[in-house]
Amino acid sequence: MNILRVIAASCRMQVAETRRVPAQMLILATSPLFAAMFLSVMKRNGDPTVLTNAVFAPALISLWFMSLDLGGGMISNERWQATLEGLIGSPSRLGAVVFGRIIAVVGLAALTFVESYVMARLVFRMDVRIVHPLVFVLTLVVTLFAMAGTATALAGLFVLSRNVLLFQNSMTYPFYILGGVLVPVSLLPFWAQPVTRVFFLSWSSDLVRASMRTDAPGWAWQLAVVAVLGAAGLVGGLVLIERVVRRVTATGSAAMA
Amino acid sequence: MSGMNQAPTHRFWLPNRGVLVQSIALGIAEFRTFYTLRAWLAGWFVRVLAQVAFFASIGLLLHSKDQVRYLLVGNAVALVCLEATVVVLTMAAERFQGTLELLATSPVGPVTVLLGRGLNWVLTGVVSSALTLTLLLLVFGQTLSVPGLLGCLPVLLLIGLTSHFYGSALGAITLRFPRVEWMVLNVGFMMPMTLSGVNVPVSFWPTPLAALAQVFPVTHGLAAIRTILSGGSMSHALGQAALEPMVGMGWLVIGALLYRRMVESSRRRGSLGLF
Amino acid sequence: MTDLAVEVRGLRRVYQARRGAPEARTALDGIDLDVVPGQIHGLLGPNGAGKTTLVKILSTVLLPTEGTARVLGYDVVEHRQDVRTRIGTVFGSERGLYARVSVRRNLLFWASLYGLSGRVGRHRTEQLIERVGLAERADDRVEELSKGMVQRVHLARGLIGDPRMVFLDEPTTGLDPVAALDFRALLGELLAEGRTFLLTTHDLDEAAALCAEVTVIDRGTLLMTSNVRDVGRRLAAPDRVDFDAEDNMVLEKLRGSGLVNGVSELDKPGRYRAEATSKESLTSVIRLLADEGITSLSTSPPTLEEVYLQLVGDRGMAV
After folding, report:
1. Distance from C-alpha of C44 to C-alpha of B161, rounded to nearest angstrom
2. Does Metal-binding show up as a keyword for this record (chain C) (predicted)?
3. Do C112 and A92 touch (CB under 8 A)?
4. Minimal Cα distance from A37: which residue of B?
5. pLDDT tens across C258-298, in order?
6. Which residues contact B154 (CB under 8 A, 6 or more apart)?
7. Residue ranges per structural domain of chain B
8. Percentage of residues in chain C having pLDDT higher than 70
9. What is this model's ipTM?
C-alpha cells in the first residue's frame, strides 16, 4: 500500500535529518539527569516499595516531552523549509508524512527506556526486576504507538495556534502529574482522576509499574485503553491535519490568523 | 592595526554604563512583546507551579512531610536558576538574527551588551521562585513565616545573577555550535537541579560530584535559604549566601573569556553570521 | 474533454484580508489561458502580476475564487488527485527541499510521495540524478550545493512522478548566466520527450529562446497570448527598417518624406533604424532607400522585449 510506503519514506527522512542535528534528540541527554534526580531521592529514603516508581519515570517523561516538541515543530518546519507546498501538491497525504516522521522520533525516544534501566541498574546499583516481561514489552509497544498518535494530534492542533512555545511549556509538568509518571494518579485528589484517565500516559505509567510487581491484574484491558486512546489521537490528528491542508489551499497561506 | 585592536580589547572588560542601561531596556522591550501578564500566568506560571508540585509530591509517595518540604523548597529555588539560564537562548537568537556580528564589531565590546541582555529573566525568575514557594507551602500544608520568606528574596536575587553569568558562559558555547542551544539550556539548568542540593543534600553524591556541585549556581544560595526558612542562625546563612556571588564572578570570567575566544575564532572562520 | 494541456476560463483569485495584509487583494481577475501540449508556454509579467498565483492554482495547492481550470483535461478542484499524479512543479527558490540531507535522499522521499514503489523509485531517482548531471554530487547534502545545482535538484524533484505537464515557477531566477544556460539546455532536452511546460519568468531572452508561445499578464489580467515568432505582429507598432548610411543627406530626406515616425541611430556607428508610419509606407521607405543606393537594409518586427515594454512598461524588468 502506498500510504505505508509514504510513512516509511518519511520515517527514513526524519532519521537522516536527525543524524545531521543530533541535538534534536535532547531527551537522550536529559533523561539520565531526570533519572539521577528521581533515583537519588528514592535511594536516599530507602523505601524499596516505591523504588520501582522512579525507574522508568524518566523515560515516560521524555516520551511526553518529545510528543510536545514534535507536535509543535512538525508542520511549522515544513513551512519554514518551503516544502509544505510540495507536500500538499503531491498525490500523498500530509498526515502520512507527519505520522511517518513522528514514528521515527518515537522509535529513537524509546532509547530512553534503555537509559533509564542503565541508570537504575548500573549507576544507582538498584535491583530492577521486570516480573512480567510480556506485559512490559507490550506496554512499551502500545505506549509508543499511543505517543505517536497523540503527537500527530498535537501536530494538527499546534499549527492552529500562535503561541506554540507557551503551550509546549505549560503542557510539560502539569501532564507529568496527570500522567502519573512518578506518583500514581490514584494518589491525586479524587476530582482530578477522571481527567487523568483520558490521558494515555496515566494508564501506561500504571502498566509499567504493574509489570515490575508480582501482581498485574487487568493488564490486558488497560493495554487496550492505551491503544484506543492512541488511535483516537491518531485519527483526530489526521482529521486536523486535513483541515490545515484545506485551510492552506483556501487562504493561500499556512499562517494561522 | 594593533593600536586599533587595543581599544575594544580594553573595553571588553569594562561594562559601559550607558550601553548596559540601553541593552537592559532592549531586553525588557523584547520581553514584553514575548510575554504578556496573562500569557505568563496561563503558560509559564502554571508550568512552574506544576514542576515544583511534581517534585514535592514525591514526598507524598514517601509518606514524609519533611521530604515534601525539602523537595518543595529546593525545586522552588531552582526555578530562578532555570529562568535565568534562558539567556542561552537570547545569545543564540542574537547569532541567528545576525545582530551578533554587529555587536562584535561595535566599539563597546559585546560583553557589556550581553551582560545586560537577558537580565529580565533574573527578575522574573525571582518572582516565579518566591510566588511558587509561598503558594505551594500553603497548598501542601507546610508552615511558613513571612520574615523568613522576605529574607529569601535577596538570596534568590543572588542565585539569579549567578545563574545569569553561568547561562551567559553556556551561551558562549552555543555560538560555536549552532542548533545546540536547547540542549545546552536544558542540560545547563538540570545539572544544578541534580547536584546542588535541590532534591537530595549535596553530601549524598560521591566526593567528586559533591565537589563539582560547589561551583554550580544554587548550591550555596539554596543552603542559605534552607537555613533561613528553618530559623537557623543568621550568620551561618550569611556565610553560605556570600559564596553564591563568588561562584557567579567565576562564571562571569569564564563566560567573558569563552565569549572572546568564540567571537575571535568565528571571525577567523567567517561563521559569525548566519550559520 | 479537450486536447489542451491547460485550459483556464474566467479564473479569479482573491486573497482575503488578514493579519499583515489588511486589505483583500485580487491576484487574478478573470484569466483565460490555453496551453497547447508538447511545448513550452511562457508566462510573463512583472512581480505581483499573478503568475505565481496562477501556477499555484494549476498545481492544486491553491483554490480559485471563481472560474475553472483544467490540467490535462482534469479540473483542478474536482479532480485534484488526477491532476496531482500527472503534474510536476519546480519552484525557483533555494528552499523547498530538505537541505540537511542528500540529493538522493530527497529524491527517494519525493518518489514515494508520488506513489513509486521502492525499486521503481530508486531506479527513477538514479535516472534523474544522471539526467540532471548530479551523479557526482548525489550523496552531498543539498545545503552544500551551488544555486545552479539546487535548481537541478528542484527540476529532478519536479520530474520524479514522470509528469506530462510541468510547471516551472521562475526556475532560473538568481542563477548565474552559465547555470541558467545549462538549465535551459536541459529543458530543451526534456521538451523532446513530449512533455508540456508552463514557464513563468521575468527573463524575456529566456522566454524568447525557449517558448513556443508566450502569455503576458499584469495586475491579474491577461494582456496578450501569442506565438513567439509572431509576437511583433500583435503590436500596433509600425514596422521598422534598419540600414547603413554614410551621410546625413539620406536621413534628412527620410525625415522630410512624411513616411516615417522617426529615425534613430543604432549601437553600431553608421547604422540607423527608421520606423515607418504604416505597412504601406514601409514599402515606400524601402524604395526611397534603394533609390539612394543603400542596399544593406533589413526589416524586422519588434522583439518580445519591445512588445513587453509596450504592454507593461519597464516595471519588473529590473530583477
Report:
1. 60
2. no
3. yes
4. B194
5. 888 888 888 778 888 888 877 778 888 888 888 888 878 77
6. B241
7. 14-269
8. 92
9. 0.90
What tens digit of pLDDT does each residue of B121-160 get?
A: 899 899 999 999 999 999 998 888 888 899 999 999 999 9
Strand partners, C227: C213
Cell of B251: 562564571
CA dihedral B258, B263, B264, B266 (to 10 degrees): 120
CA torsion angle C294 C299 C305 C311 (round to 10): 120
Cell (9 digits) for A125: 546499583
Distance CA C234, CA C222 (A): 14
pLDDT band at A81 (very low <50, low <70, confident <90, very high): confident
- Determine whether A179 is exposed, middle or buried from the number of CB atoms within 10 Å of its CB (0-12, 13-18, 19+): buried
Indicate which of B61, B67, B176 best probes the interface with A, i.e. most A CBs within 10 Å of its own CB.
B61
User: If we measure between CA atoms, which residue out of A118, A121, A126 comes closest to residue A49?
Assistant: A126
The angle subtended at Cα A155 by Cα A152 and Cα A159, nearest 5°, is: 155
Is residue C60 within 8 A of residue C26, CB to CB? The reply is no
Nearest to C41 by CA among C207, C198, C224: C198
| CA pair distance C31, C264, nearest whole angstrom | 38
Q: Residue B7 in contact with residue B107, Cβ under 8 Å?
A: yes
Report yes or no: B124 and B36 within 8 Å, Cβ to Cβ. no
Task: Give the helix ranges, DSSP H, for chain B.
Answer: 2-12, 17-34, 37-39, 46-61, 65-84, 87-97, 99-105, 110-116, 119-139, 146-176, 181-195, 207-213, 219-229, 234-269
Task: Label each residue of chain C as H, E or C.
Answer: CCCCCEEEEEEEEEECCECCECCCEEEEEEEEEEECCCCEEEEECCCCCCHHHHHHHHCCCCCCCEEEEEECCEECCCCHHHHHCCEEEEECCCCCCCCCCEHHHHHHHHHHHCCCCHHHHHHHHHHHHHHCCCHHHCCCEHHHCCHHHHHHHHHHHHHCCCCCEEEEECCCCCCCHHHHHHHHHHHHHHHCCCCEEEEEECCHHHHHHHCCEEEEEECCEEEEEEECCCHHHHCCCCCEEEEECCCHHHHHHHHHHCCEEEEEECCCCCEEEEEECCHHHHHHHHHHHHHCCCCCEEEECCCHHHHHHHHHCCCCCCC
C141 close to A (CB below 8 A)? yes
Q: Are A154 and A147 in contact, with CB atoms under 8 Å apart? A: no
Please tell me if residue A88 touches chain C, with a CB cutoff of 8 Å: yes
| Rg of the Cα atoms in chain B | 20
Q: What is the DSSP string of A80-98?
A: HTT-HHHHHTSSS-HHHHH
Question: How far is Cα A43 from Cα B229, in angstroms, rounded to an integer?
Answer: 25
Q: What are phi and psi of C262, to 5 degrees?
A: 180, 165
Size of interface A-C (CB pairs under 8 A): 99
Find all residues with CB under 8 Å of C244, minimum gap 6, and list them: C270, C271, C272, C294, C296, C297
